[in-house]
Amino acid sequence: MSKNTHRLDEKASGVYIIAATPFGDDGELDLYSIDSLTDFYLEKGVTGFTILGMMGEAPKLSESETTTVMERILKRVNGRVPVVVGVSHSSNRHVQRLSNEAMSLGAAGVMVAPAPNLKTDEQVHGYYAGIANLLGKDIPICLQDFPQSTAVHTSVAVIHRLIDEFPQVVMLKHEDFPGMRKLTRIRKESEAEGRRRISILVGNGGLFLPQEMLRGADGAMTGFAYPEMLVQVCKLFADGKADQAEDLFNIYLPLLRHEFQYGIGLALRKETLRRRGAIRSAFVRKPGPALDGTDHEELTRLIARQDALLG
């Protein structure tokens, strides 16, 4: 098994790619494509991986398939970069079991979204506190703040409280929408109050990446099919070249925005990855979207325009 040579910590930055889960045209796991996709992401220079996220179709996997995907990717990565495993589930015991399994296989930490139907700050805090206590101090935690999917609002006050109470909370995946003022508040209030600074990586397909980097984000945790753009943009920001970063981002923006569409975005992402040779099939497991002829033509045109602009 892969050695756990990385531990997720507050200094994490760069691009943690949200890995797609490849299936064959028959809907079964494609182990060959898991390997080729892992190699593709590494070749494009990603800082880390996040596997079994919502765009990784984790809820559509059986328990044995979940283990297979974890084992396969962690073995292929072989300690070269940190791997965060999504462990969100309605059962706390399942979160605990999956977290322990992930860490034993060499994961750097786990990502947890709140359970559905939490309505108040106390409920959200209580949920995360229960998970943190259940997992213990040795498992680094990334909080996933994605209310568009969970319908749970995690307030700035709750995030601060969790940071203060649980040293294992080392990262926030920021996906509130609109949420840039939230990002600014977390950074400014933390600094003003002398709070521990945690890593903030942003999602939402990277749609607002330049603005979020200028507001204090440390990088991206998303799955755009051109990860090299995310890598280059984050590096340019780190080098103090914000205008160059945004100019590069803008070339890719039409395709990134297209891939961000709810409902069909994952099918577009997988088809683009297939066209780039990263996976053999663009199959999205049911229930899930499939592209029609017009969708394919549209994607072809957007890719051609992007290629022309890149020269």
What does this structure look like?
With 311 residues, this protein is α/β, with parallel strands linked by helices. It has a single domain, classed as Alpha-Beta Barrel (TIM Barrel). 48% of the residues lie in helices and 11% in strands. It contains twelve helices and eight strands. The protein has an eight-stranded parallel barrel. Helix 1 (31-43) links the parallel strand 1 (14-18) and strand 2. Helix 1 (31-43) crosses helix 2, helix 9 packs antiparallel against helix 10 (242-259) and helix 10 packs antiparallel against helix 12 (293-310). It is globular. The mean pLDDT is 94. Belongs to the DapA family. This is Dihydrodipicolinate synthase family protein. It holds the Pfam family DHDPS. Pyruvate binds at residue 221.
Which labels suit this protein?
311 residues; alpha/beta; TIM Barrel; 12 helices; 8 strands
Outline the fold blueprint.
Layout: E1 14-18, H1 31-43, E2 48-51, H2 63-77, E3 83-86, H3 92-105, E4 109-112, H4 121-135, E5 141-145, H5 147-150, H6 156-165, E6 169-174, H7 180-192, E7 199-202, H8 209-214, E8 219-220, H9 227-238, H10 242-259, H11 265-275, H12 293-310
Parallel strand pairs: 1-2, 1-8, 2-3, 3-4, 4-5, 5-6, 6-7, 7-8
Helix pairs in contact: 1-2, 3-4, 4-6, 9-10, 10-12
